[in-house]
From TrEMBL:
It comes from anaerobic digester metagenome. Residues 349-565 form the NAD-dependent epimerase/dehydratase domain. The keyword Oxidoreductase applies. Its EC number is 1.-.-.-. It is an enzyme of class 1 (oxidoreductase). Residues 5-122 form the Gfo/Idh/MocA-like oxidoreductase N-terminal domain. This is Oxidoreductase YvaA (Modular protein). It holds the Pfam family GFO_IDH_MocA_C3. The keyword Oxidoreductase applies.
Length: 696
């Protein structure tokens, strides 16, 4: 049998994760593969994984030799590259979405017809046994007249893209709907046999790729509700309801569906599956493509098959409206006035750690505030963590603080630095030194370093800025102290520096102090702690902290000083938990006895230690085992969940600590200090949790 010559155009994460495992199993194929990428290192990595292949930088160089092309490029390149391939009579397998615009998709379909080439698409989820069963049951009429479809999918974004095409505002204003939505809306159209009529589409974009989407649509009387999120883990479920029954399931549980006959009869239908993991469902699509080229099969999924979903997606973007993000409406920045002299008005501001919780909010508030006058450059280390940041059309810069050349480029034209980035202790400390050194050489006007009140360690009572550092043995505590000490070295060298030591920062996008506890309480877990929970909870609302930092940028009176930043109310941890729970509209929390808390924490201690070792040294093989063995996967998920909801020994000590971080210096020096009451902060937090799709 003739083995075709194939070009893989784009050798990034998708190629290595989904295509390489299938292609290397094809006998004799790897010697006839061209690996095309402008990044030769990426192509070399793919060749090493394949065990063969010929590298090229331009696919045009091989069009006269190949019979098939697999296009794995950023979405906006699918159409032009496919048109050139199809125009040369080369059959194409295109990663979803087929095209960004319906007109482009139609051109591709027509070109394939004109040239007698095949146009296949990898809309993988059509291979899920569960999704195929849903379609068959709808078509059989067992559910009767369809009344509604509910589809909810959300997972924290982490795609390891080199270009960040899915979240980079420089490349597109289209985000999760163009990415995950290409699967989801295709599924809906496929189940229903056509394109629904859009009623409403809302998202969270401010000009960049959106990360949360809500869609309402209708088809033949069937009401459709879709929620998609890149910012949080949601229930990941679907439910199709008719007047004679219902079928439902978990999106990634492709081995079973739940059936309700509408008369009280409920059952679970178990399904056979040859694939144990998601990449396994890509295999039949690739194998089919090879057979199509050889003339032995028709496409499993053709370009024409997905046209309805491309049109549906486009209609959504044409009518997109912004979600009501109430906490963003309150964003403002207070500028320094009096109390010292003004340093020159900030020019470009580099924010490191801009994809993180606090750095991200500083960027957002600088962009949103009506009177903002600060041009921001957001430092991005990894695009995989930039789904939140990407919603805003701000300037970005690649920034690895261990790379002096990247630091130098990021600082070009910058006058002020807000340093929020953190990583491992070693990287954080050395990265801070690298940034300070470059800032000194560049003559940065003001360097603001975000530290933490944790540098005081286990200090009790009223703690002000004159209190000494105290190492606790905790890596986070150590790296924050060490980074501060380096800052003081560079202050002595003449770099204008201000250090902020915030207490417990809560509010929208706080994973540690807001989302984690909200998720626990919504799941009926967690509680208030007998004995432990009466320690002082020093809360500061994230917007207050961001305003304080931005307000100090052009205030010379802040230079050379360190400031504790705390909120206007000091309550106990138990009161915080109680008020957060009430803000979510939930029943009263249970009381967790001290002995029970101690026992749970003690039991989880070796599990945390072992988990850290596995994560550091063995995560890849463990994940592979979990993908293949359901029992291992279930055990890992259970253990991970228990670790999340069980406080560590450090946390129990924190909940009991009788400490108040005095912010008298900040309130006596700075013109902008925290003033958001806890009830208001929690009301905004609840609206944010609602936006994430965790509550209705």
């Amino acid at each position: 049998m003739h083995i075709p010559k194939i070009a893989i155009i784009g050798c990034g994460a998708a190629a290595q994760r989904y295509y390489v495992p299938v292609l290397r199993r094809q006998s004799g194929l790897k010697e006839r593969l061209y690996l095309v990428d402008t990044d030769r290192a990426c192509a070399e990595e793919t060749r090493a994984a394949l065990g063969g292949g010929m590298i090229r930088e331009d696919f045009h160089d091989v069009l006269h030799e190949i019979q098939g092309a697999i296009i794995l490029l950023p979405n906006h390149l699918h159409h032009p590259v496919a048109m050139d391939c199809l125009g040369a009579g080369v059959s194409v397998l295109c990663e979803k979405p087929l095209a960004v615009l319906p007109g482009h998709a139609r051109e591709m379909i027509q070109k394939a017809r004109d040239k007698g080439a095949a146009l296949c698409v990898n809309n993988t989820r059509r291979m899920f046994p569960s999704f195929r069963t849903v379609r068959e049951i709808i078509a059989s009429g067992r559910l009767g007249r369809l009344e509604s479809i509910e589809y909810v999918e959300g997972n924290v974004f982490g795609w390891p893209s080199a270009t960040g095409f899915a979240v980079n505002p420089k490349l597109s204003s289209r985000g999760i709907l163009m990415d995950l939505g290409a699967h989801v809306l295709d599924t809906i159209c496929w189940w229903l046999g056509g394109r629904p009529v859009l009623e409403e589409m809302q998202d969270d974009s401010y000009g960049g790729p959106e990360s949360v989407v809500r869609i309402r649509a209708i088809k033949d009387g069937c009401k459709i509700g879709i929620t998609l999120s890149r910012l949080s883990d949601l229930s990941n479920h679907y439910r199709v309801t008719g007047d004679r029954g219902e079928i439902s399931g978990r999106i990634f549980d492709w081995k079973r569906v739940s059936l309700d006959d509408g008369a009280g009869g409920k059952s679970v239908q178990k399904l056979s599956s040859v694939s144990r993991n998601y990449p396994g469902f890509v295999a039949p699509i690739i194998e089919n493509f090879l057979q199509v080229i050889q003339g032995r099969a028709q496409p499993l999924i053709s370009g024409s098959d997905v046209l309805d979903s491309i049109e549906f997606i486009h209609s959504c973007y044409e009518r997109r409206e912004r979600l009501d993000l109430s906490w963003d409406k309150k964003a403002w920045v207070h500028h320094a006035a009096g109390g010292g002299f003004q340093i020159r008005k900030p020019g470009k501001i580099l924010v490191t750690g801009a994809t993180g919780f606090i750095g991200g909010r500083i960027v957002e508030m600088a962009h949103l505030a009506p009177e903002a006058r600060y041009p921001i450059r957001a430092g991005v280390h990894q695009w995989s963590s930039a789904a939140r940041l990407g919603r805003f059309p701000v300037e970005t810069a690649a920034l690895d603080l261990m790379d002096p050349l990247q630091i130098e480029r990021a600082l070009e034209g910058v006058t002020h630095v807000i340093h929020c980035a953190k990583g491992s202790p070693e990287v954080t400390v050395q990265g801070t030194r690298n940034l300070l050194e470059a800032s000194l050489k560049k003559g940065i006007s003001h360097f603001i370093h975000l530290s933490t009140a944790d540098v005081y360690g286990d200090a009790a009572g009223v703690v002000d800025e004159n209190s000494p550092y105290h190492y606790t043995g905790n890596p986070y505590n150590r790296m924050k102290i060490d980074a501060e000490k380096i800052c003081w070295e560079y202050r002595e060298k003449g770099l204008p520096i201000t250090i902020f030591r915030p207490s417990i920062v809560y509010g929208p996008f706080s994973t540690s102090w807001s989302l984690r506890f909200a998720a626990m309480f919504l799941a009926g877990e967690g509680g208030i702690y007998e004995g432990y929970g009466e320690g002082r909870c020093n809360l500061v609302y994230v917007d207050d902290l961001a305003r304080t930092i931005l307000g100090a940028l052009d205030f010379a009176g802040a230079q050379g000083k360190v400031f504790n930043i705390n909120g206007p109310e000091i309550i106990t941890w138990n009161e915080y938990f109680t008020r957060l729970n009430a803000a979510l509209g939930l029943p009263p929390l249970r009381v967790i006895r001290a002995k029970r808390a101690d026992a749970a924490t003690w039991a989880m201690s070796p599990v945390r230690t072992l988990g850290g070792i596995v994560k550091t040294h063995f995560i890849k093989p463990v994940k592979l085992i979990a993908e293949r063995v359901d029992a291992v996967d279930a055990l890992m998920r259970m253990v991970e969940h228990r670790v999340k909801i069980t406080p560590s020994s450090d946390e129990l000590r924190l909940f009991a600590k009788d400490t108040v971080y005095s912010d008298a210096r900040a309130r006596g020096t700075l013109s902008c200090c925290p003033d958001t009451g806890i009830d208001q902060g929690l009301a905004d937090t609840r609206e944010w949790v609602k936006y994430l799709g965790m509550v209705s």
